[in-house]
């Protein structure tokens, strides 16, 4: 059989075979074999839980595929919360006729990326729907992480003068997806930055006590992530546009198409608010990693405990303007 | 705004509003507000985790909707594993143009069912895809339950003579879905049995020490669930067809359409293997509940420690035949 059929999703013999041949083959046996749920021991009673559905289009893109994105996205959500990613569940919704070869490739990528990140994939689910009822393949991943007391983030300690750091160039994922869709009308070499940041973030949390809070600037981009931080913690963040790292080809694509890299999705970046006394140490650690080599201090907290938080951008020409979260439609199905 | 637009899934202002107006309105605030993950304390270090995607068609059916199914299905998966359901995550994939009124109704049903089952809904996610890329609405739910030592299931204690109990009539969900699709060509009053069984199962586990293992016979029906038990634990189960409870109208629909109720999905039933000394006590507890009032002993374990498990059916006419798991295509998108 070369393609997925509806019967693969019926819960009977073919579902059994699909699970045996593809999922268990790649993900290994879980504790789940005897039960409807995976039963597992976890090294803490405080856990972090996150869930995401992935509907990226196209499913394969420069720098990754939907499976890699599902693992790295979930790992990063846990990591920026200060948790150590522990296990991930995966739910597949597959269109009838989907090539089994592609499914295998995606599942193998997930297994490989999970191993790199040090998480186990447990408790999967597979549904198959008729041709036309879903666009190829969607994946949901839910991650459970373990909180460690010594890694507790301290957003309550945010104060004026704290630094804002981004771990690298922004907008790469967004432009890679646009490019893969041939929506650019031009060729770029930009690859998605999608990567698991948990080991890098773990090192930062081990070494630096002054980290207040972190976010992964995915859908909605860096600007939206920062606006949310400003609102959640009632602070003003001032970003210096000139210090925000953007690849030349990403900026070029944005200039042509009228996009702002600040609003384009990233899938392997973290934005960090840190005590300014620790900013150099944080930068040193980041730059020592492949994934953080373009890290940059991009701004600071200019006021705290205000009524409603706001994000300000100091532009290259010296003016300051307020940025809001992404409004309206920019790029559907970016992740 | 009356319909979901692509911009509702972009992670910006409209996503924010959708989450505020619909999800937080119904599900309440989670611990998630400050982080990318929900951070929570759990009362045990042994947990059960399960995940399921729901693609049922139609989304609304007699006895429930996709949201009720997502909660009850996940609650039941945890409960039959011997876990106390604790939290559920929910991921929504919504088709552009989906009516906001329907989304609200579904989300409200989920909130209501979660409250009834005693679980919190945490850590949601919303993606919106273009018209035609998904059939209305799919939901993924992942559940985390807490294991209790005194409720540990003991499949290793299964022995010859153990009883097999089903908690009520089978095939109701399957026929209700068929009926809602107008595929029957006849009208039935059959409602889906979809319901959270965790309180009932909790009482069984509190009162009866001889429960070996449980399963919820969903996709693939009672026969597939029993075949899996037989294979997993290398036992022979002999089921007496005459004692399997089937509603008359369900049997009638099956007779007309050529379906076997043993393979039709159930969404509010549990099959239990129990020490035969405890079978009467288990029946008494079940029959004392609305959801277990039609419970019946349907068979027993006739051999253990065999090379490969098998399920035998003693038919009404006195013959015995072997049943396999569902093979091929029966009813796509039943859950």
UniProtKB/TrEMBL annotation, chains A, B:
GO terms for biological process: protein maturation. Residues 36-147 form the PurM-like N-terminal domain. Pfam families: AIRS (PF00586), AIRS_C (PF02769). Residues 159-303 form the PurM-like C-terminal domain. SUPFAM superfamilies: PurM C-terminal domain-like, PurM N-terminal domain-like. PANTHER family: CARBAMOYL DEHYDRATASE HYPE, HYDROGENASE ISOENZYMES FORMATION PROTEIN HYPE. Belongs to the HypE family. NCBIfam families: hypE. This is Hydrogenase expression/formation protein HypE.
